[in-house]
Specification:
single chain, about 325 residues, Glutaredoxin, ADP-ribosylation fold, 12 helices, about 40% helix, binds glutathione
Amino acid sequence: MSNCPLPILYSFRRCPYAIRARWSLLHAGQLVQLREIELKAKPPQMLEVSPKGTVPVLVLADGSVIDESIDIMHWALKQADPFDLLCKGDASAQQEMTLLIDEQTATFKYHLDRFKYIDRYPGDSKDIHHQAGREILYRWNERIAVNGWLIGERMSLADQALWPFVRQWRIADPKSFDADPGLSAMQHWLRRFLEDQSFERLMARFSPWHPDQPESLFPADSSAVPLDQPLFHLALSQDWQAAQDSGSYQVSTRGFTLSQVGFIHLSWLDQVKATFDRFYADAADVLLLTIDPACLTNPLRAEVAANGELFPHLFGPLPVKAVMDARPYSQ
Ligand SMILES: N[C@@H](CCC(=O)N[C@@H](CS)C(=O)NCC(=O)O)C(=O)O
């Protein structure tokens, strides 16, 4: 990992395509420069890299451009997919995901636009599109009713790609959505996203971008982790032993795995003692791992903890070879 320039994301706060792209960047631990645009006055810098003129557009450090939201999601998940949203190795789940995302793109969005903005479609009938969209939602609801998610027992890319559009549908008529007994599983499913602790970060407001102003970071409360100073992690000795056998360490913090939390908690040197006192003081055989951040390949981001302090987080497994030193920690 090197301190190369951050990707640039052209975004529009309320756009469901931009929302799903930001959601996946947020959860993959990716820091970007966010350029909020106005759809009525798209910046020439964006049109130059993506003449089709839709948001989101992601411009990577090497200049390559990704201008379809679903491709941005795939790119983000390639950087880090701690919850296995791509259902690696499960061809049938992947096929189901593709079918659902295609149905949203080709059919649901068509009815959503006409249900929500009927004034833009003279001669068309709002009721017909309401009914047609609702039938799709009923089918999605039946899937969610089985295990809580669109596919199987875990959240997948399909849930993440679809919820911003279901949110938009609800916004068009919240009363009928909330009162519909045929959508009860989906009402709960949607609330999981809207009440998620990251929703506020996702929907933070940015002033429209102007090249003369300083760049804004997304997530706005995060920052880059310097790569020229070591990072630290307190580990139980048995967990570190297991990591040496497998080649990577996948514990987030005491009692929680990477796949439960989504990232590994790290510290800077002056934060280690307080972390030990809070979480490890009664544990036997605690090791202090010293990590070379330049050897990490998954995204690293400094994020605000509940106490307001910034901590480095690693969004992926910690490779054993990135650990420069592992020694018993005691006060
Ligand atoms: N297929 C694109 C669609 C993106 C899209 O249509 N975005 C809308 C905003 S929600 C847009 O930029 N529209 C251009 C305009 O209104 O001028 C994607 O998935 O990224």
